[in-house]
Amino acid sequence: MSGRQWSRRTVFKAAGGMTAAMALGGVALTATAPAAAAQDGFGLRVVDSDVNAGRMQYYRFATEAIGWDPGVNVLLPDDYHTSGRTYPVLYLLHGGAEDFISFDRKNIRGLTAGRPIIVVMPDGGAAGWYSNPVSSNVGPRNWEHFHFEQLRPWIEANFRTFAEYDGRALAGFSMGGFGALKYAAKYFGHFASVSSHSGPASLRGSGDLVVHWANLSSAAVELGGGTVYGVPWDQARVSADNPVERVESYRHKRVFLVAGTSPNPVDWFDTINEVQVLNTQREFRGALDRAGIPHESHEVPGGHFFREDMFLRDLDGIIGRLRKA
């Protein structure tokens, strides 16, 4: 499980022995290909890139939003350089303890081969939680600002994408699944489809376990003792980010959820992860049902890992929902 790249001792030591329950697996991408000429703008400056004739484009940006230079992979359709067509775009968000390269290790090139969609895979921090944190002791880590206010318009200025509601989708794994649900609600006029693969869907569920873990993990490995939501929590921030409190924002969207039902019984880390994912997704699905908002959800065997078969099913639905290339 990718979340194990974290030292458990580091997390628990930083928490002063607090028991954390919800972990963050991850997934993202590498580089190798062409695209429109890289241009500075939107508060971003390209400091490194690999832009050739292949499908995969790699960029690294300098931005005042982040205290280091985050990377982004952009995976293009097979015929992008010859077709002249405009394409829908999927923003695919990695999990905790991962980076923008992780989805390439998960066969994203093979999974998307022949599909008419651009896939954007950005860095999101080891425990950034797709947020602008309340506090940081290591410089700026404003991932939400970077992704939405800078990267999204930069992508739309440099690639042939449909820069509209019906042209954009969000998906993610684990922490990235939460990030996808959060962004889709907070920026509800920008994304027509949202998918969470083993991502928590309620910050306050299970005795506030997920928001505890977001604060704990961000303090330990992302913010040098700072936190995403503050101590005590900034309750308004928690509510603004909490999918189950933003149910109406998912109306008229395609919603896709996956959670495992049988984590490895001898692996406590895997078990704690997916049990909480399943509980929070069930809470979220109940809220969607009560509001009469359609969704597609799957409870499948296994624990906290990225499932290629479910991603392929999801990808078919994403392409079916978005504007056609």
Automatic annotation (TrEMBL):
PROSITE patterns: TAT. It holds the Pfam family Esterase. One of its GO terms (biological process) is xylan catabolic process. Its EC number is 2.3.1.122, 2.3.1.20. It comes from the Bacteria. InterPro entries: AB_hydrolase_fold, Esterase-like, Mycobacterial_A85_antigen, TAT_signal. Keywords: Acyltransferase, Carbohydrate metabolism, Glycosidase, Hydrolase, Polysaccharide degradation, Transferase, Xylan degradation. The keyword Transferase applies. It catalyses: an acyl-CoA + a 1,2-diacyl-sn-glycerol = a triacyl-sn-glycerol + CoA; 2 alpha,alpha'-trehalose 6-mycolate = alpha,alpha'-trehalose 6,6'-bismycolate + alpha,alpha-trehalose. Belongs to the mycobacterial A85 antigen family. This is Acyl-CoA:diacylglycerol acyltransferase. It comes from Actinoalloteichus hoggarensis.
